[in-house]
Design brief:
Number of helices: 9
Helix content: 25-40%
CATH topology: Rossmann fold
Order of helices and strands: HEEEEEHEHEHEHHEHEHH
CATH architecture: 3-Layer(aba) Sandwich
Strand content: 15-25%
Strand order of the largest sheet: 1-2-6-3-7-8-9-10
Shape: globular
CATH class: Alpha Beta
Structural class: alpha/beta
Radius of gyration: 18 Å
Mean pLDDT: 95
Distance between the termini: 50 Å
Low-confidence stretches: none
């Protein structure tokens, strides 16, 4: 009983429906669908800005989607009280001449399930990042691409650099911002869950996914990232281990910067911050795109 309940919290797909749209923000866009690198159909919005640079945003996992995160339907105890609308940063980038691709990772929002019908915390979703970059390249052929990758999106992007014929071979990608990358094992440890419950949940998840969730480690692929990378982390985030973030940053072999935020003691505070202060992200992309 405990095992299935905990596993559902961690890997059950489709936990959050879309709650926002570009239309509500006065943005010119089109609904799009495209294949991940394994053929899984992904759906999203291509928001129209300039023709020479485009941001590909990959969202965080499980209870999120391309529109962001909403407390609605998340139970009585919520990590954040208000909607986190990713279209806020999209609006800002578009106003500055960027196009913006927002899409749902597999098993989230309106995208299809992949061959593995559970959320994998990055190894499977890496194929989605690759598909999104290839789609952006095909739709805006001459544009430089920047990657705005949030939490599981950052993990997925890093795994995508470790794939054979992965992101390292996509020359249009010019810069990456990784917002709060997080290993599954660090998250479980930070939750302080009793050991027997954590083990029960992990057993069910491992059976569902077909691999041991404690083994994949995207930090090992960080040296394969070949574009300038900004890592953003709330130093008051109670759901991570700062040593893991530092390991990730230290493993990067490119021009890099670590931006530590001193904001509210909540992991979700940083997700909200990037929408409230998108100009701080734009500076990194402007430098390299």
């Amino acid at each position: 009983m405990f095992g299935k309940m905990i596993s559902n919290m961690m890997v059950k797909p489709y936990q959050s429906p879309l709650f926002d749209s570009p239309e509500a923000h006065g943005l010119d866009y089109e609904d799009v669908e495209f294949p991940a690198s394994d053929g899984t159909t992904l759906r999203g919005w291509l928001i129209k800005g300039g023709e020479d640079k485009v941001i590909v945003q990959s969202h965080f996992g499980v209870q999120c989607n391309r529109s962001g995160w909403s407390p609605k339907g998340k139970g009585p105890i919520k990590p954040w009280k208000e909607d986190i609308k990713f279209l806020r940063q999209a609006r800002h980038f578009v106003d500055q001449g960027y196009s913006f691709l927002m899409y749902d990772l597999r098993g989230h929002g309106e995208s299809d399930l992949g061959p593995t019908p559970w959320v994998s915390w990055g190894p499977e979703e890496a194929k989605d990042v690759l598909g999104a970059v290839d789609f952006a390249s095909s739709r805006i052929p001459d544009a430089a691409i920047g990657l705005l990758s949030i939490c599981m999106g950052a993990a997925s992007t890093t795994y995508a650099y470790g794939l054979e014929e992965g992101l390292a071979s996509r020359d249009q990608v010019k810069a990456l911002i990784a917002v709060q990358p997080l290993l599954y094992t660090c998250f479980i440890d930070a939750l302080g869950m009793p050991g027997f419950m954590a083990r029960a949940g992990e057993k069910v998840s491992n059976e569902r996914l077909g691999f041991d969730m404690s083994l994949p480690n995207f930090v090992e692929h960080a040296p394969k990232i070949n574009v300038p990378t900004l890592v953003v982390q709330n130093k008051n985030d109670p759901w991570t281990q700062m040593s893991m973030v530092e390991d990730y940053y230290n493993a990067l072999m490119v021009e890099k910067e670590l931006k530590l935020l001193d904001i509210e003691k909540s992991r979700f505070a940083a997700y909200d911050y990037i929408g409230a202060h998108p100009e701080e992200l734009m500076g990194w992309f402007d430098r390299y795109m």
